[in-house]
Design a protein that fits this description.
By secondary structure, this protein is an alpha+beta fold. The protein is built from three helices and six strands. It has one domain: Nuclear Transport Factor 2, Chain: A.
Length: about 160
């Protein structure tokens, strides 16, 4: 069976690590790689869209990152219990017309015993921003460790 450490039950440190690993995965913008962090029968609610299974997740992420260009994400632990983690996050991106956005959201995650995400519930709001108002200025890919997090950025 495919294990994705850290495994539940989570401690504060392992929950923080799980959140950062999720952030790193999403910042890769690799739908096939990201989809492997979820169970075969994962269930998602993303905004008003409902997804079931890895193949739907991979197709969703492909559509997402074809539309949300120069995507850069920061996630932050909000709360955790044995096999649940709640995060808040923000990401910046632009559309194919060059319009920039900062999207803010909250996610609730449930994990199986192997550390794969069984359920994901996301609420997200998009806010138009000017290019000059962007705060996420690292090369595409993993956020550098020295880049400020959400709290440090006042988000």
């Amino acid at each position: 069976m495919n294990k994705r450490p850290p495994l539940p039950p989570f401690t504060h440190d392992s929950a923080v690590e799980k959140v950062r690993l999720a952030e790193d995965g999403w910042n890769s913008r690799d739908p096939a790689k990201v989809a492997m962090a979820y169970t075969e029968d994962t269930f998602w609610r993303n905004r008003a869209e409902f997804l079931k299974g890895r193949s739907q997740v991979e197709a969703f992420l492909t559509r997402k990152w074809n539309r949300e260009l120069e995507y850069r994400l920061i996630k932050e632990l909000w709360a955790y219990t044995d096999n649940h983690i709640a995060v808040r996050y923000a990401y910046e991106w632009h559309d194919d017309s060059g319009n920039w956005y900062r999207s803010y959201g909250n996610e609730n995650w449930e994990f199986d015993t192997q550390g794969l995400m069984l359920r994901r519930f996301a609420c997200i709001n998009d806010s138009p921003i000017k290019h000059s108002d962007r705060l996420f200025h690292w090369p595409l890919g993993r956020r550098p460790d020295e880049h400020p997090g959400l709290g440090e950025l006042g988000l």
